[in-house]
Amino acid sequence: MSLHTSSTSAVLAGARSASLSETDRLDASTDRSGYVSQSLPDGVVFAETTDDVVSTLRLATAHRTPIVTRGAGTGLAAGASARSGEVVLDVSRMNKILRIDPVEQLAVVEPGALNADLNAAVGEYGLFYAPDPASTSICSIGGNVATNAGGMRCAKYGVTRDAVLSLNVVLADGRQLRTGRETMKGVSGYDLNALIVGSEGTLGVVTEATLRLRPLPVATATVAAFFPDFATAAQAASAVIASRIQPSMLELIDGQTLEAIDMAMGTTYRSQGGAFLLAQTDGYGAHLEQDVLIEAIRPLATSIEKANDDEHAAELVTARREAIPCLEKLGRVSIGDIGVPRGRLAEVAVGLNDISERTGVRIYSVVHASDGNLHPMLVLNPEDSVTEGPAKVALGEMFYLAKSLGGTLTGEHGIGLLKRDWLLPELGEVSLDVMRSIKDAIDPHGLLNPGKAI
Amino acid sequence: MSLHTSSTSAVLAGARSASLSETDRLDASTDRSGYVSQSLPDGVVFAETTDDVVSTLRLATAHRTPIVTRGAGTGLAAGASARSGEVVLDVSRMNKILRIDPVEQLAVVEPGALNADLNAAVGEYGLFYAPDPASTSICSIGGNVATNAGGMRCAKYGVTRDAVLSLNVVLADGRQLRTGRETMKGVSGYDLNALIVGSEGTLGVVTEATLRLRPLPVATATVAAFFPDFATAAQAASAVIASRIQPSMLELIDGQTLEAIDMAMGTTYRSQGGAFLLAQTDGYGAHLEQDVLIEAIRPLATSIEKANDDEHAAELVTARREAIPCLEKLGRVSIGDIGVPRGRLAEVAVGLNDISERTGVRIYSVVHASDGNLHPMLVLNPEDSVTEGPAKVALGEMFYLAKSLGGTLTGEHGIGLLKRDWLLPELGEVSLDVMRSIKDAIDPHGLLNPGKAI
Ligand SMILES: Cc1cc2nc3c(=O)[nH]c(=O)nc-3n(C[C@H](O)[C@H](O)[C@H](O)COP(=O)(O)OP(=O)(O)OC[C@H]3O[C@@H](n4cnc5c(N)ncnc54)[C@H](O)[C@@H]3O)c2cc1C
Ligand SMILES: Cc1cc2nc3c(=O)[nH]c(=O)nc-3n(C[C@H](O)[C@H](O)[C@H](O)COP(=O)(O)OP(=O)(O)OC[C@H]3O[C@@H](n4cnc5c(N)ncnc54)[C@H](O)[C@@H]3O)c2cc1C
């Protein structure tokens, strides 16, 4: 312990800008997962340049100091949560958009740039950056890269991994690694891009990202449909997939979550049905695809409405985006993130009901239906823990439910500290062993985000 | 050497089915790259099941025997070329399509299944497997996975990496690794899927692949356009990208290649222009996108023709697909595979002319224009080598040309033995060092495809 403390002091003392204040350390001990750290990190380094990151990591290697990289702290897996004996490396001040190339349709950004700020900047060129977590206005690109963030558009346009062309990564020993390339295609050597994306800060610190942009669609068509219940809406979502169109958004919200949204936002969604499906199609075929979509869900829906103007469509999307903050008004929220084969959403609905009844935990669900990724949200009393008691039991049962349906523990939020217990049953010995050998090869002293992700 | 020989004998003797015949060893010493091995491998093991692969690799580890995995042998980088002291593990007999799930839109296949056979099988369900190398009817899915194969549709639908959901991989020591998952999304642990894809048989042997399928597009619209020369056609391709549509195919063929196609196939393309652009759009917006495309290229084209029936469209696609075999009738062909930013294709055209003049090597080009991936093909005399003399010089200059334009050595064919000399200048020390440390971690005795890829 005292060894650690002296090692962290050396790293903190060597930084151009660092804080030992309790407020900063408290902030850096947690994220938006509901996870509460038992201790505070020893201090926070604020990096402003790649050189700052390099010099902090060189010191960290010299002194064997554990480093927790932090973006905007909106993570839902306690990936950025730091503890005593650790130094937090906060890169949120490195937030410049360095270059936008409208011809090649790419952007180069610093890691602290917010997802929404990037989209605002490239929007001026008629382009967009596809991965759009609901947290778009508060999360950083570096965090998106480190968690392989998804969102509502990704069934059609891909997740963060599909949008990353190249990264600059500072390794634990301070060396700089350039992954990928600026061209659309390339196969020289192993895919280190994909290895870093989703590695949750355990392999290196991302200090620059070259990202693929896309032309804004010429048209977007929005449908809002209501169903008697979650299971029927899930069936409708499966019918959309089976109809062979590719919606750009297919979001399902259950009745209880609609109630919470109504309560927080003054809307009246719940009165219109027991579950809600928000579907968008886009591009040159947007309206033709919309017709097919409507035919597919018609037999199951109690009401179907086209949002014919942009304002109405934006309202609906905002309601979906705000689901988590609305639920946070009801209590401490712990957010599940399971993925299942797309045809089995209705079965998950039944299973989640069951889990709620058995554990006594209230479960609210929003679902990225076109890729089978569900966010069952546990709403707890403010004093309840997310890492023990009924919440922990419910999270575990959710995982085994997903597993029994051929699914996964986490579709887009990551493992962090929160989900480590289920990583071995998910991945198996060999897979985890290979991952650990890669970690050892790249970060031999185990300094980067120890205990997280794998 | 004698040590090697005795170690290879043990592996060959332990296999259920193996061959020591000179014909089989000769076949296994080469691929379609034009690379000629100086020696023959010691023998070929024919695997029929995953267990066969496991037992061969266990023996290989016990006896420290180098193993070269072989699919269909259509590679263009000498990745499957094997030499004395090595045993070839041929998986082409493991060619079953194990499962097609039309609801989840996925297929599970053995590695030896041919790309075209998979597409024929899933076509019956109205689905397709997107990565479509021109070699579709002769290359294996395992080879596609190992090289991260691309093709003509991949600008819109992604390369092999984007289509792989999960793999079963036998590691050098015989352990079985399951990568990825069957769900559309998932972020638990590092992305071992992407690490294995494109690793050219150096990290493990793929014995099963779970692949994402897509609904066949409801409509496809084809345009054939001619231009005065390659540079003008390249400009037209850039104009298509700038017009913000997403063609599903945008293939450019230069005048000399048209001549070779005409000669081999009895067609008359060359008389219609000095360069040819084959463009397809598909989906619900196919015809609207086609109109935009035509407007974009009109100012540059000497003629533009819509292929209004499927037969005519298929003819055009076949001409493109057959370009390599047609050139092979003219001499030994060595195929470049450089990638550049999409807006710089016209500059490459100029640079390639230059290289041809300086080295005296005839260079023919076909281009996946929508992702900036060019295949400049060197046509040599049958007795010329692809690994020394003018061909080697020309390949090297092509790489430095691509590099000077911000591009890459290889867009989709891989490094193999053929392109190793340029890997360090492309990737840099740190990147190569990280890749080698991963290789050491996963294949500590360096038994799998030694000397290839990295
Ligand atoms: C209301 C709300 C809605 C959300 N909706 C979604 C959603 O739809 N989809 C989705 O995927 N997520 C969603 N999230 C989760 C979260 O926003 C994402 O995980 C996001 O990518 C985290 O970014 P961050 O900058 O906040 O990262 P942090 O929370 O700061 O860090 C997350 C992880 O990334 C690592 N990290 C951060 N920056 C770097 C870097 N530069 N280099 C290396 N490692 C780094 C950290 O160590 C940590 O492990 C939501 C969160 C909230 C609060
Ligand atoms: C006429 C022609 C056109 C072509 N067009 C294209 C094109 O458009 N796009 C494109 O990308 N390529 C193209 N190619 C190249 C080639 O077809 C691809 O690289 C293909 O993916 C190779 O598959 P294969 O089964 O023949 O592999 P092989 O040549 O047998 O092997 C290629 C590499 O993969 C490894 N490997 C093979 N199977 C396995 C396995 N099961 N597990 C682990 N490693 C394995 C080998 O060790 C080797 O390194 C073309 C080739 C020809 C001859």
Key features of this structure:
homodimer; 454 residues; alpha+beta; Uridine Diphospho-n-acetylenolpyruvylglucosamine Reductase, domain 2; Uridine Diphospho-n-acetylenolpyruvylglucosamine Reductase, domain 3; Vanillyl-alcohol Oxidase, Chain A, domain 3; 3 domains; 7-stranded antiparallel β-sheet; 18 strands; binds flavin-adenine dinucleotide; flavoprotein (chains A, B); FAD-binding oxidoreductase (chains A, B); FAD (chains A, B); Vanillyl_alc_oxidase_C-sub2 (chains A, B)
- Determine the number of helices of chain A (DSSP H or I, runs of at least 4 residues): 17
Q: In percent, how helical is the residue content of chain A?
A: 25-40%
Number of domains of chain A: 3
- Whole-number mean pLDDT of chain A: 95
Ligand roster: flavin-adenine dinucleotide
Q: Looking at this structure, what is the CATH superfamily of the largest domain in chain A?
A: FAD-linked oxidases, C-terminal domain
Rg on CA atoms of chain A, Å: 22 Å
Q: Main sheet of chain A, how many strands, which sense, barrel?
A: 7 strands, antiparallel
Shape of chain A: globular
CATH class of the largest domain in chain A: Alpha Beta
Number of strand elements of chain A: 18
Largest interface: A-B, 90 and 90 residues
CATH level-3 fold name of the largest domain in chain A: Vanillyl-alcohol Oxidase, Chain A, domain 3
* Percent strand of chain A: 15-25%
Q: Could you say what the CATH architecture of the largest domain in chain A is?
A: 3-Layer(aba) Sandwich
- Spans of at least 5 consecutive residues with low confidence of chain A: none
Distance between the termini of chain A: 24 Å
Keywords (chains A, B): FAD, Flavoprotein, Oxidoreductase
Cofactor (chains A, B): FAD
Pfam families (chains A, B): FAD-oxidase_C, FAD_binding_4
Protein name (chains A, B): FAD-binding oxidoreductase
